[in-house]
Write a structure and sequence with these properties.
rod-shaped; 19 strands; alpha+beta; 555 residues; binds adenosine-5'-diphosphate; seven-stranded antiparallel sheet; single chain
Amino acid sequence: MVMLGHCLTGMSLASRPYSEHLDTLIEKIGVVPLEQLIGDLLKTSATALNVERVSFWSIQDDGAAMRREHQYTLSNGEFDTKSLLLTSAALPIYFSSLHEGMSLIVSPDAKSDPRLQEFQQGDFGYLQIGAMLDTPVHRQGRLVGVICHEHVGGPREWGARDVDFARHVTQWVAMAMEIEDRQKVNEELRESEERFHLVMEHSPTPTVVVDVQTGLFVDGNASALSFFGVDRARLMEHSPMDFSPELQPDGRSSRDLIETSIKEALVGGSPSFEWIHLNIHGDEIPAYVHLSTLPHGDSPKVIVAITDRTEQVRSERTIRRALENERELNELRTRFTSIVSHEFRTPLGIIMSAIELLRNYFDRLEIDRRKELFDDIHSATRRMGVLMEQVLVLGRADVGKLTYTPVPIDLPTVCEKLVDESQSATVMRCVVDVHFENDLSGAMSDEPLLRHIFTNLLSNAAKYSPEGSIVEFRVRRDGHDAIFEVSDCGIGIPEEDQPRIFEPFQRAGNVGEVSGSGLGLLIAKRCVEMHGGQIGFVSIPGERTTFTVRLPLFP
Ligand code: ADP
């Protein structure tokens, strides 16, 4: 505006009203549509310079053509926006002069000007161009258009100020084009930012933006706010470190991982990795993060998209547990098959061969031998009966048919009875020393359940100890509880078997030929639990074992 003002001050042609008119036009740059503004500039130039036709042409095809965009005709005051294309093929001389030097064509006599001779003939003759003043529109050093002043009739001398005025009009056109382009770019940028924000805001993926210089969050979508458990204002006060544990599961420090990945993102990478996030309540949330840089003005920013892996981790865990269960079930089935077949086949074999002998050689057998064979049959049958009984008890427990019904009992008498029963079950293999250490009166319990517990523990103590050794059975009262200890000096339970010894069909590796089902301890444990008690053991392999049972028998 200053430049034009200066330019117009010294111009005899540009009377005051034109300069004012130009001033108002200049104010319209960037406000009114470009096409309208160019039309007004063409009109102003035609009027100021008193030229019949002033037109604006845009350069096309890398300078091989030019298209008329707009024309003003002074005599009828009309604008014409009909497009007209001139090509270098049709007007080679004119085009080559246009691309020479500054592209300015000042021709006082078009008829004799060799540069314009093509306009005097054929299709262009009717234009009656007498003099021509073409001023180039340059942008960034490139010819992008021409403003063409066509004087009709005879020759016309173009004064320096005419040329100056025309050139200034072209400069304003160039500037108006530039401003419109920038406005377009800004508009596109704004639209793209709006689009980005819209997408980001409504994205179900928690997404945050971190300012690399301050290390603080500068933006976060709705999903991120609910993921982080804070509102937008509070999010901006924090950095990613405030929502991270000291260390990540792989042992790396969270700070180290954040810094390395930001660096990687800043050089164009898009690092993504598993991440443990700490929400505002201090809960650890498994996540997966993906970083990339955000093309954003002056200070670099990183955009972080977070995938909450809680559900994924949960289902992975469920699948792993299901597989584990399946594996355990298979193992259980294998143990069941091997124990049941062994525990039936062996006694059945014994029974069969004893019966064979008795049937075929009864008369020839000594009385003692006969008795021996009958005893074999008896204990083999008993062995099978025990297994059947155990399986049935567990079956009843599983369907809830094994119940705990406490009634007043005389605990020492019941204990003595159970010792006798286990003694006869193990054919008096060991001596059981019973000690009642204090007053046990007033106990309430369910005798059948006590039987399942202690016949199993006492029989085991005898089964896994040397014949004739002593098994200790100690009973005492401790407040509301009765404490029972069954100790033996037998083979003990190897350490590697101890953790799983209460599992079904689980037998230790050192049992050798001693028969068993691996169900007794499981039944004992179930019955203890039905009392609301506890069972445990201490065993030194090769030395001794003590099982301790605590039952709340004294109300
Ligand atoms: P089982 O019928 O095999 O004796 P249990 O469930 O009663 O089944 O016991 C499980 C396993 O625990 C036994 O096979 C044995 O390996 C071990 N065990 C139990 N009690 C004793 C004990 N007093 N001494 C050594 N090992 C024992």
